[in-house]
């Protein structure tokens, strides 16, 4: 089945640690996106990538980093510089300019 | 960043009732999308709209692309308990960041059996 997978589903991190969230898609989509969701808020764009080996900052990129070495994969690293990292993180993919399809999400909690 | 105004913020309705929610923007959009999110899951696309005035249905759901291109509406008829969740609108303005989506803050729907 084609789709988007995110792992892990739940992630706990100690303050000061970096952590990497995985996102993989087998939909052959060129574009991939990372969003952050906080309670009662809409989705805020962290980073996006329209093509392999290229990515751009979204609205809230500070404290995050990404890479796009393969078309299928777009991992997100939450660094220690992110002051309030506890949130629900969603990955999405699309054909350029087309509807975005979302993964199941990763809930990150900082202890 | 730019945001959409989505209302209402939350709704508590009785099973069988109809539901209406809407999104408005200060700028013109070329695409409107409606997603539903179940608790702890990713949003799922319900309806996509591409043309001003377009009216599209998906089962009990009907969405419209406003004629001003600055708003969109979602209606759910004869609600059932599994309609519970958060509904998000999203719009795309090609004058913005390479056509990225802009999301509303969501409408949380609760249905009493």
Tell me the series of helices and strands of chain A, N- to C-terminal.
EEEEEEEEEEE
Which percent band covers the strand fraction of chain B? over 45%
Counted beta strands of chain B:
11
Gyration radius from CA atoms of chain B, angstroms: 14 Å
Q: Would you identify the regions of chain B where 5 or more consecutive residues have pLDDT less than 50? A: none
As a whole number of angstroms, the C-alpha radius of gyration of chain A is: 13 Å
Which blocks of ≥5 consecutive residues of chain A have pLDDT under 50? none
Helix content of chain B: under 10%
Overall average pLDDT of chain B: 91
Seen as an oligomer or otherwise, the chain set is heterodimer
Number of strands of chain A: 11
Backbone structural class of chain A: mainly beta
Beta strand % of chain A: over 45%
Observed structural traits:
heterodimer, A: 111 residues, mainly beta, 4-stranded antiparallel β-sheet, B: 113 residues, 5-stranded antiparallel β-sheet
What do you see in this structure?
The complex is a heterodimer of chains A (111) and B (113). Chain A is mainly β. Helix content of chain A is 0%, strand content 50%. In chain A, the strands form two sheets. In chain A, strands 2, 4, 5, 6, 9, 10 and 11 form a seven-stranded mixed β-sheet that branches. A four-stranded antiparallel β-sheet of chain A has the order 1-3-8-7, with no helix packed on it. Chain A starts with a strand and ends with a strand. With 113 residues, chain B is mainly beta. Chain B contains no helices and eleven strands. Chain B has strands at residues 5-7, 10-14, 19-24, 31-37, 44-49, 55-58, 61-65, 71-76, 85-92, 101-103, 107-112. The relative contact order of chain B is 0.33. The mean pLDDT of chain B is 91.
